[in-house]
Amino acid sequence: MASMNISLPDPLRDYVQDRIDSGQYASASDYVRDLIRRDQAGVADEERWLHDLDASIAETLAEMRTGGGLDLDATCNSIDAELRVIGGRARQ
After folding, report:
1. 29: nearest Cα among 4, 60, 64
2. How far is Cα 65 from Cα 60, in angstroms, rounded to an integer?
3. How many Cβ atoms from other residues are within 10 Å of residue 34's Cβ?
4. Which tens digit of pLDDT belongs to each residue from 45-88?
């Protein structure tokens, strides 16, 4: 296993030592390894989310090209008209 030296300001060093003293980690190395694993998992989650988003956008664009979907302006205008009718009823 390779080693790496890092420098920390006193407050961060104290925080890491508190985590070790509390029994949550066996050593500073154990703590840093856990942080790196969590970061790797976060990056993987973000990559999956972006992949799923890209797929969703591609699917939506394909649907729109074949005439599917709804026109946003028309939909908003319809909702606005319905709300005005409902609003008019509420005033009566």
Report:
1. 4
2. 9
3. 13
4. 999 999 999 999 999 999 989 988 888 999 999 999 999 998 87
